Amino acid sequence: MKVAVLGRGNVGGGLADLWERAGHEVTRIGREGGDVSDAKAVVVAVPGDAVADALDKVQGIEQKTVIDATNIWGGDPPAGYSSNAEFVKSRTNGPTAKSFNINFAALYDRISEPRSTPSNLWCGDEEARQVVEQLNQDAGYEPVYAGPLENAAVQENFLKLVIGINQGGMGQFFYRIAPPDQL
Ligand SMILES: NC(=O)c1ccc[n+]([C@@H]2O[C@H](COP(=O)([O-])OP(=O)(O)OC[C@H]3O[C@@H](n4cnc5c(N)ncnc54)[C@H](OP(=O)(O)O)[C@@H]3O)[C@@H](O)[C@H]2O)c1
What we know:
Strand content: 15-25%
Order of helices and strands: EHEEEHEEHEEHEHH
Number of helices: 6
Structural class: alpha/beta
Bound molecules: NADP nicotinamide-adenine-dinucleotide phosphate
Number of strands: 9
Strand order of the largest sheet: 2-1-4-6-7-8-9
Largest sheet: 7 strands, mixed
Shape: globular
């Protein structure tokens, strides 16, 4: 699959590496922008407050299937939207999903360690299902459908619980990366 990733950092670069290993053709786009006309899927992996700017700099994104992986720290989604993902859809008018926002990029290299496949939530449009589920599986995750795009705000806020779990010392169990006899 041809995939364009906006953002070449921990998430964008890390997922691009995983997908290339799985045989996908990935175009990595930084803050200079670029053309995504060729891509079947576009993944947004820029800072949560830079989504509008990043979308402004790409051509050919209209009607595309987009997966928004962003989180918002200490701020709000763009005015008039309850989530970044719904804002993205308002700009592309294509199938949209929220995914990859509640797994830590630092663990991408350890996805294969647990005895059972780690799960990864996605919510969004049915028309995005095939693309999102394939890209989850090819990154090493078991995709778990979490409802329509209206749930994206809950999924974005869910990160607060994940951070709380980590700070409470249970992160290894949550991500099933504890020693095998403890899983
Ligand atoms: N880190 C995680 O574990 C994790 C997990 C899930 C979700 N997230 C979310 O995923 C997003 C990316 O996180 P990250 O850790 O990958 O961040 P990061 O390593 O800082 O990478 C961000 C990328 O976005 C680019 N960028 C910044 N401003 C931009 C703009 N205005 N237009 C286009 N591109 C721009 C940066 O380009 P430059 O290299 O030129 O600065 C960089 O390549 C964030 O929303 C974050 O909350 C992070």
